[in-house]
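G.,

No rush on this.
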Amino acid sequence: MASTLKINTLTGVSTAGSIAVTGEGNSTTTNLQQGLAKAWVNYDSEDQATRGSFNQSSLTDNGTGDYTTTYTNNLSGAEDKCISVNVWNTTDDGSNASAGSARGGSRADQAGDTVQSTSSLNWMSYFGSSADADAGNFDYDGNYCITHGDLA
């Protein structure tokens, strides 16, 4: 018989901030908090508009293809986070934003020469041939950044 659980708050019994979820096959568990995204943003850099976000107090467009997202709630460490960034160019059905495409491809990543912090993340988007250093910064219709890690 199926049941429905309706609650507003989940709290661990032995540790309030830790809830184990039993995985497929009933043999392993995953910590629920570790698997949740701690922040994300969907940003249109051409229109300079945030389409949606979570745990983001602000986004600064520093110039072509250069962005800083500031978290509402800080992360516990500047370097102990995992980010994923991606781009989508809706102007031409995305064909210019396909990594490794014949037109050169795109990429987006954490800004490598910027010291990261617990309160913000600097990331960039590029257009050019694979990972060449001469690939130029580029503003895409869709810029997506997600952060995993531990909140402070």
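When you get to it, here's the other one too:
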Amino acid sequence: MVFIDTNVFVYAHDATDPEKTLRARKLLTELTATKSGCISTQVLHEFCNVALKLSAVPLKAADVREIVRELLIPLLAHRPDGPFYIRVLETFEKYSLSFYDAMVVQAAIDLQCTRLYSEDMQAGAKYGKVTVINPFA
């Protein structure tokens, strides 16, 4: 399995950088076709927040609903429980990550992913069996 960080979805739906949009869409098409991609609720939350308010050109709520329904929900594989946050804090300490990056990494670990596609973390970094890949490099 492959974990997909929020920035991939943001670039796929933000036309301000056409090259990144193309790369993100190609990656998402491949991962959905092979059913090898997954996300956590955190990614869903972050995407909605960025798409509705923080993007250079915010999306309409109806468009975000459609993206969530058609793309994100089918990839949603990790819903945190109480013990997840204890593991996140252990990951936070072990790897000196930000809390939110530790949540992404721990979700990827919990889902037994080997790759984590993210522009926000150091490409090539390894967290257990999870390796960060920058799909835009």
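The beta strands are 2-4, 37-40, 76-78, 115-117, 126-127, 130-133. The two ends are 21 Å apart (CA to CA).

Enjoy the weekend,
O.
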